[in-house]
Amino acid sequence: MSDFSTAARTGFARGGIEIRQTFTNLADLWQYIFPAVALFATVFFMRGSTVPGTDIALGARTLPSALGMGVAFSGLVTVAMLLVTDREDGTLLRAKATPNGMSGYLVGKVVLVGGMSAIALVLQLIPGLFLVDGLHLDAYGVFTLVWVLLLGFVATMPLGAVLGSLFKSPRSMGLIMLPLVGLIAISGVFYPITVLPGWVQGVAQVFPVYWLGLGMRSAFLPDALTVSELGHSWRHLETFGVLGLWAAAGLVVAPVILRRMARRESGSAVAARREKAMLQVR
After folding, report:
1. HSE-CB for 37 with a 13 A CA cutoff
2. pLDDT digits (tens, 9 = 90+) for 104-125
3. Whole-angstrom Cα distance, residue 91 to residue 104?
4. 127 with 101: CB under 8 angstroms?
């Protein structure tokens, strides 16, 4: 059996175990439940509002946009947080010391984050289809949903791994939250991007968050809603292109960054981080 297949099998098994463990942890269960509760609370407060120029409820537009935002958040923040935490507690060092350990570790994290994201998506999507008027999902929508999700994960997870390699402790992860919140605010998640200044629209279109939201909207909403989108189109070709460019860049850069980070890992480095964390707690 090749090294790759061994690492893949180990990684899938590890990822599956970690997903099952999330159902026994209150903090992980809250990560599943809270986004759904927050999303439906937001949609509830939008009741009575419609997308400008249409009779479609603003909440119907917001729900798929928020699903795309959730994919981006999982790929960027969750992956980065897991990597930083595992580096601090020595999990990464143990993986490094095992044959094919790093490959299996990365596969396991992809399975874990992908599985958790899928569960969270289902918890938001199924009630949304029944509770929010204006959403529909036909065969073409399912096809669009699948390729947007898969490409979105590939576009954001490597970037999340790169971000995780740049931070030395989980406490410093808050530094990426403010820019991410700002990016979400300008990416047309909760209101059409067309109301923003042109230069802000240009900035938003550089990053995956906007395109994930647009792709998800195209899967669930009627074509009539393109009146509130840039170019009055779902822009599937552009969505595929931008997410594909981020995916290609991430898959090239992330392995290099992760290998360099792994080479710097040692028992003394882990011990030093633990000692520093203990001093900060005191």
Report:
1. 6
2. 888 888 899 999 999 999 999 8
3. 12
4. no
